[in-house]
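Predict the 3D structure for this chain.
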Amino acid sequence: MNRLFHFSCLAVAALLMNLAACSLPTETPPCTREQLQAPIPVSPNGESAILDPTDPLILEWGYPTSPCHPDFFEAYVWTGPEPETPGMTGRVNYDNRSSPGRWHMPWGIPLQPGNTYYWRVYAGLETGPGSDVDGPSARGYFFTGPICAAGTEMQPVNLISPPDDITVAPDEEITFAWDDPTPCLVNGLFEISIADNPDFYGRYGIPILQTVYTTTPAEIGTEGLQNCTRYYWRIKTDPAGPAEEPFSETRTFFVQPEGILCPPGNLNPPSIPPIAIARLDLNCRLGPSPDYPIEDAFYAGEQAPIEGRSADGNWWLITSPGREARCWVWAEQVDVEGDLSGVEIVEAPPLVTLEPSLTETPSATTVNCSQYQDPQSCLANPACQWHAAPPNQLPAGYCENK
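Done. Predicted structure below.
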């Protein structure tokens, strides 16, 4: 998804309606603590706000229509997780409007290229000696360019939070945050991948433009994450881009409700060895491609253990039930039951070593066709032929060498 065009017209219309109401009477009394309202971030803010990091940053905001006014506004800027105590803030008095209903503040700290930035502004009251009163706040965000050009080599992101191997409750917030060291702005999305296995089969994919995302285990997926389960997570840069785009390191977290004792060792549910179940009659080939010769048949309803997978995940390596041959079946035409987390990539044999066998016919001295007791097994071997017996006569037929 292109970040330049991923922008909500509805949000723009709502913002314009709010700003139209920002102009305040010139003579209003000071607010009480309870009357303070959150400012309205105006600029820069949103998915299309991409700044040149060498240009000065000017923060601009409005304030809702109110029968009273705050004494000042305070703002700060950060990247990554929001700091509990910002290292630097800027203040603008309420009376120092830049235009009717608008206030602005220059930010003096230089920006870095290719980053996500956030800023927060709040209204406040001066109370004399002691701490001032801080009212409700609002957050804006923007990005710094330049946008990465086509063919740019992406770097794996550096994970910031959460730390590895934490335990969280289902309704406890988790803040996923990372730093992107690529010195340009990805013109697409990041993806937070979450799965209950280290190979990320059946993962939950959360696409996001920004480099910070806060959620809870109960909000991930259609029904939330499972309790007493360990989950693995990592970040992929530009998941719509080339398959070789880098992944971050992998970290884990464990979901455990408060007051619930999970099984010892924080183990996931016991794994079940995976099996493939043929949906229809299939060819089982010597390699993971239609270019490889057929080794055996995998008939509808038959089951076989899954012993490996192709690098692209489109083929399963099985041992066929008929001839007990190791061969490959197309993953799209089989159902899978069991835990795939332990299935490893198996390198396919090169096609050039198989081409001579395409023209060879097994001889009667090397194949014993009489071992096959049914027509399906017999005909699966190209060296054999099946002779059917007359109706109602037993045995029903026999298999012999051609």
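The first strand starts at residue 40 and ends at 43.
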